[in-house]
Amino acid sequence: MFSVRRRGVARLAAATVVSGLVAAGAIAVAGPAAADEGLDGTGGATATLGKLTTFDTVEIAGKGKVSAGLFEMQVTPGGALQTYCIDLYTGAKTGQEYKEVGWDQSSLHNNDNAGKIRWILQNSYPQVDKLDELASKVGAKSLTKETAAAATQAAIWHFSDKVDAMPVDKDAQKLTAYLEKEAVNLAEPKASLSLTPASLAGKSGERLGPVTVDTNAASAAVSLAPGAPAGVKLVDKDGKVVSSVPNGAKVYFDVPAGTPDGSAELKIQADTTVPIGRAFVSTKVKSQTLILAGTSTSSVSAKATATWATKGAIPAVTAEKNCAKGGLDITASNEGDEDFTFELKGLKYTIGAGKSQTVTVPLAEDQAYDFTIKGPNGFEKTFKGVLDCKTATPGPLPSETPSTSPSNEPAPATAGGSTGGSTTGTTSGEGDLAETGSSNATPMIAGIAAVLVLLGGGAVFFLRKKKTAGQ
Fold first, then answer.
1. Of 38, 161, 43, 62, nearest to 101 (Cα)?
2. Which of 12, 151, 304, 416 is most buried by its number of CB atoms within 10 A?
3. Angle CA(77)–CA(78)–CA(81) in degrees, nearest 5?
């Protein structure tokens, strides 16, 4: 989240060389974790984190001063979001992919004040953009977008991270005090788009489903992903082919008799506004958790898969982060007439015909995971991501870490099981001001580091040559 104003090029270069060597070691141990696969039934918006754009200075009691306010995020494939931070002590990595999730899959899962954060979002900037009226309401002389954003972020941190945060601007302090005093718990907002279930199974010659659509959009477009077997269609309960559905619609996979054993994927997309207060978590690496404060009309999507066969085991597997238990819930069902057996982290599980079982895979906080479950007829389901369920432990305010730094990517846990963690930087000595967003010094630092590494290699070569000549 934060970058630090360094005091000298030499200190920057030395630190960069050391961190570069550590990063190289991390690359050798494990590659980067990929985005979640198989969690798409929860659906919603996927966005890329941009810079802190509207901000002012906030002081954290006993820690120092930080730049605080609104991040911009770009939605894929279209739309823009504004978000505040709800994870003060974790660095933000610009350029990283984020996914909309429910509070139960974020650091808000056990926060009794989560609803108060939503109230603050709805009663302050940018949802309330008439700043003269807002200033008058809280007894301030005036507010700008920057000071209002900083005041709002300070109030949010009070409830998300339990810190004493206050803007340096005197008028902004009045807004923070008002928001903290008046906030009341509101209900969690629903997802912009979700599908239930995300995975299902059955026999060919049947309609498989239903898959229920839940969205705040007027309608959503549904289609089969490329590669679906010939003859497979998406239909409603009456067997009518569908391409657009409203909220609450039930969609089925129509698999004609004689269709070879296989699978198909349903894709759904809608243009809508994501509800204010939805949480956003990084999908690939540890990066601070964010909460939605403002949005344009954005494209949201989800998917669900269906598997079928004529006989034998016919599995369906879904996964969901379980922050309450600190792990990943993997639910396997079997709609076939034979047992379905799979292995997970060295243990074998057998799901009887017509049965279902949920297995919670324990994971450490910030741990990347990478699990693949295989079954008959080429069935294979992979789940990848990072468990991010807690705000970081209070400590020195972290410096912003560029999204390209692999040293901060936790090593993924595989079916065999392994753990990894993330690191955060710290602010330098007294007088430094931590800043949210990326650092313009990064290219220069990288260049200096590269030169120093080459010089170091040359020195080693020279000394070896000299020693050889002496011998």
1. 43
2. 151
3. 120
Q: Which amino acid is residue 177, in one-letter code?
A: A
* Half-sphere CA count of 10, side-chain side, radius 13 A: 0
Separation CA 320–CA 43 (nearest Å): 12
Neighbouring CB atoms inside 10 A of 6's CB total 16
The answer to whether the CB of 144 falls within 8 A of the CB of 54 is no
What type of residue is 186? Answer: L
Distance CA 51, CA 320 (A): 30
Two tokens, residue 175:
């807004």
Backbone angles phi, psi at 168, to 5 degrees: -80, -25
> Which amino acid belongs to residue 447?
G
CB atoms within 10 A of CB 378: 10
H-only helix segments in 63-130: 114-122
User: 13-27, 32-46, 193-207: lowest mean pLDDT where?
Assistant: 13-27
Round to whole Å and give the CA distance between 386 and 323.
12
In order of 7, 173, 323, 345, 380, the CA distances from 185 in angstroms are 44, 22, 21, 40, 42
CB-count exposure of residue 433 (10 Å: 0-12, 13-18, 19+): middle
**Using CA of residue 145, residue 147, residue 150, residue 156, what is the dihedral sign?**
negative
Q: Confidence band (pLDDT; 50, 70, 90) for 345?
A: confident
CA 47 to CA 146: how far, in whole Å? 23
| Nearest CA among 414, 292, 391, 340 for reference residue 91 | 391
Determine the 3-state secondary structure of 152 from DSSP: helix
Whole-prediction pTM: 0.78
Do residues 286 and 388 make contact, with C-beta atoms less than 8 angstroms apart? yes
Contact 386, 37 (CB under 8 A): no
Report how far residue 289's alpha carbon sits from residue 40's, in angstroms, rounded to the nearest whole number: 19
Give strand pairing partners of 350. 341
pLDDT digits over 85-100, tens only?
A: 999 999 999 999 999 9
CA dihedral 5, 164, 178, 171 (to 10 degrees): -40
Residue type, 22: V
